[in-house]
Specification:
Blueprint: E1 4-10, E2 15-20, E3 24-29, H1 31-38, E4 46-50, E5 55-58, E6 63-70, E7 80-85, H2 87-90
Antiparallel strand pairs: 1-6, 2-5, 2-7, 3-4, 3-6
């Protein structure tokens, strides 16, 4: 499975901004769910199919998180940038 991956450390209330060049799945996963994603098991995430850009995902709790961007098995490539906006700047 091909995908873009960004490991980040963020605080609760921060917002992850993802800018896409095309529609894609954008998911924010904790470490356990990222491991499940990698192994093809069921997992939970914040986000989903994004048809417009930028995408803003609110971070539910502080810690290490993983941003995964993929085409859901579709052909092609996606380019994306990931930026963390602090909670005080995101509003």
């Amino acid at each position: 499975m091909k995908y873009l991956h960004h490991a980040i450390y963020v605080n609760a209330g921060d917002v992850v901004e993802v800018v896409l060049d095309r529609a894609a799945n954008v998911q924010l996963l904790d470490p356990a769910n990222y491991e499940n994603y990698e192994k093809g098991r069921a997992y939970r995430y914040c986000g989903g199919c994004a048809t417009t850009s930028p995408v803003h995902l609110s971070v539910p709790e502080s810690g290490r998180w993983h941003v995964v961007i993929d085409l859901g098995g579709g052909a092609g490539y996606v380019m994306a940038t990931v930026q963390v906006l602090s909670g005080s700047l995101a509003g």
